[in-house]
Amino acid sequence: MDQKKYYNDLSKGKIKVRDIDIKFTSKWLEKSVINFADLGKDLKVLDAGCGRGRLEDKLVGKCDIIGVDISAGEITRAKTGKFLVSDVTQLPFDSNVFDRIISMEVVEHLPSKDKVRHFFEESYRILKPGGVLSLSTPNVNNLVFFFTHIVKGKRNPNPVLHPTMLTKKYLVKTAKEAGFNIKIFKTYLFPIPVPRYEYIFPTYLMKILNKIGELPGFGSVSFGFVMKAEKRNEP
Question: Which residues contact 38 (CB under 8 A, 6 or more apart)?
Answer without folding.
Answer: 100, 132
